[in-house]
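To the team - alpha-D-ribofuranose complex, inputs and output below.
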Amino acid sequence: MSDAPRKIIIDTDPGQDDAVAILLALASPEDIEVLGIIAVAGNVPLDLTQRNARIICELAGQPGMRVFAGCDRPMVRPLVTAEYVHGKTGLDGPQMADPTMPLQDQHGVDFIIETLRREPAQTITLCALGPLTNIATAMERAPDITGRIQQIVLMGGGYFEQGNVTPVAEFNIYVDPQAADIVFRSGVPLVVMPLDVTHKALTTGARVKAFRALGTEPGRMVAEWTDFFERFDKQKYGSDGAPLHDPCVIAWLIRPELFQGRKINVEIETQSELTMGMTVADWWGVTGRPSNALFIGSVDADGFFALLTERIARL
Ligand code: RIB
Ligand code: CA
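Output:
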């Protein structure tokens, strides 16, 4: 990491795993300066993702964080949500009071455009934890900002793990494949955290116990969110815990050495309903198409959870 904290905008559809990612970012001021958090429709509708984003900021003790509402539906396709994983509120597990901190009046897409035009070029990283609707909409509405983005680090897609919402498509890409196509064709340097790596970051009993053992409200919340969130994947995959997807994005910014991947070409299926939202990842370099993404394949899971626990203990 360079000396100065990395300036980021988080785009998110909380979601319990988004929540842990946001807590990690807010607990790491020496590494990350969060300029704003933008909710997008995804795991649950926008009215809930924007509420949940504010709940998470208050849990982190940062009610002054600017939270924006972005797009309430994908660019072309109808919204697909995932209450079957995240529960009706999107943060099911513990009882959570409504937030009292305000939602910003400005639309989240306008915040992205305004921030990228104001800040020096190549100094802002976009961290996408949900469907890419807000980022792609900003690129379409203001093409001049695309070249100003330092990097986009996103959770989405899959190659060896293929899909989790269809046999070949991962949820964030599947919900808005047109948006993903715009982002993956944009030329902005991409770091992709696909299911290939997130499925190696499992919330085992010992790891959840470590969160609970922090004895803090954030530690308890993370443990209770995980207890709820993991039931679906444990049943589906028969695994010891569930993949903690979105915190991989933030952890990469803090300790990239925990992750391994390769620069490859990744394109998005937007034509066939059968394979809609598939990330066609040229892992073996057979197409000759230009590399547009650092596609992450593995993680030091113990190191990842140690970082998560150590940082969340600070809140
Ligand atoms: O497929 C996993 C992704 O979809 C995660 O970002 C999760 O929060 C959901 O948005
Ligand atoms: Ca998410």
